[in-house]
Design goal:
single chain; alpha+beta; Chorismate synthase, AroC fold; 4-stranded antiparallel sheet
Length: 384
């Protein structure tokens, strides 16, 4: 069984992650993780902390020997470069909560007198270490030719026309876009929208899509509600700060259509049973069906505005503006990378659950045997 735990605060010494259950024999180097960390940081719309202070690099502390995992817990460490600037400082307690943040519910829940105690852990900075953990999962899945890509499909009022295309068709365009959008025209328009929001002291939300290809049928299950693949994906996408809604496949659109125009009908082609469409987003009954998995996250504009919103001081009850904390203008491109990482984790988690073993070789034997049986029953589509 795969599981992970994270620790660390936004302005603390470091972020730490521990992965348990990673099989032995996986070739893993720090650059496998650093590439994804860099993508999370360098996108358009990020604030000064990401541009000028942090340069996230992971250190693999344990679990790897001679470039291969050894089956023991994998420990990851990411230094907060801003820590030396804050070490030993004791600032005055923060007593004015920011609307839209965990500030007020956090101090009420934990009984704090200083909102900064909430900010330290509730901050989206925590997603840095989860992105690193997801990068490990993505590296594991690549051993079985499973490809995963997150990309932006909307920011503000500007949307991409490249939703739900194959990874091969959009990869180079996503990688070259400063906002990770596969539509070149939309990418330029989105950057302009972000610039306008910056000038106005405002922020922008949007949506991203994660595509998973070459996925085997049979991940997840219908037998228990909490083990359904779509439920697991929705859970982890919703765990990204600022995500307020999740969609699988054409879920939103199909809610207003008759069943005859929704479900993916079965057909036969070249001795293989196939689906002509993929409106279900690769999941039926909580189980992967072999089609590409499509999951989307809808992201609200972040709540730290340069032109602050109204708030109330907890001590004086005076109506004042919320404090501005250095932040991004738009985090949707970064959220697409985080979403890619976290979807990778869920797929890896269920993959190990389905094809379990203590080493890559053992899992591969189990996987190959299973896929051989699947192909004997429904054939092997050419795109697999």
């Amino acid at each position: 069984m795969l599981r992970f735990l994270t620790s660390g605060e936004s302005h603390g010494m470091a972020l730490v992650g521990i992965i348990e259950g990673l099989p032995a024999g996986l070739r893993l180097v720090e650059d496998d993780i650093n590439t994804m960390l860099s993508r999370r940081q360098r996108c358009y719309g990020r604030g000064n902390r990401m541009k000028k202070i942090e340069d996230d690099r992971v250190t693999i502390v344990s679990g790897v020997r001679n470039g291969l995992t050894i089956g023991s817990p994998l420990a990851l460490y990411i230094e907060n470069k801003d820590w030396p600037n804050r070490k030993g400082r004791v600032p005055a307690p923060k007593r004015t909560p920011r609307p839209g943040h965990a500030d007020l519910p956090g101090v009420l829940k934990y009984g704090f007198d200083d909102i900064q105690n909430v900010i330290e852990r509730a901050s989206a900075r925590e997603t840095t270490i989860r992105t690193a953990i997801g990068a490990v999962a993505k590296r594991f899945l690549s051993e079985f030719d499973i490809a995963i890509l997150g990309h932006v499909i909307r920011i503000g009022n500007k949307s991409s026309k490249a939703s739900s295309q194959s990874i091969k068709d959009i990869l180079s365009r996503v990688e070259s876009s400063p906002v990770y959008c596969a539509d070149i025209k939309s990418s330029s328009a989105i950057c302009s929208e972000i610039d306008k929001a910056l000038s106005a002291g405002d922020t922008l939300g949007g949506s991203f899509e994660v595509i998973v290809e070459n996925i085997p049928p049979g991940l997840g299950t219908y037998v228990h509600w909490d083990r359904r693949l779509d439920a697991r994906l929705a859970h982890i996408i919703m765990s990204i700060p600022s995500v307020k809604a999740v969609e699988i496949g054409d879920g939103v659109k199909t809610a207003s259509l008759p069943g005859s125009k929704v479900h993916d009908q079965l057909s036969e082609k070249e001795n293989a049973i196939i689906r002509k469409t993929n409106r279900a987003g690769g999941i039926e009954g909580g189980i992967s069906n072999g089609n590409p998995i499509i999951v989307r996250g809808y992201v609200k504009p972040i709540s730290s505005l340069r032109n602050p919103l109204a708030s109330v001081n907890l001590d004086t009850r005076q109506k004042i503006k919320a404090p501005y904390v250095r932040s991004d203008v738009c985090i949707v491109p970064a959220a697409s990378v985080i979403g890619e990482a976290l979807v990778s984790w869920v797929i890896a988690e269920l993959f190990v659950e389905k094809f379990g073993g203590d080493s890559i070789r053992e899992i591969r034997r189990n996987y190959d045997s299973y896929m051989s049986e699947i192909h004997s029953r429904i054939g092997k589509p050419r795109n697999r």
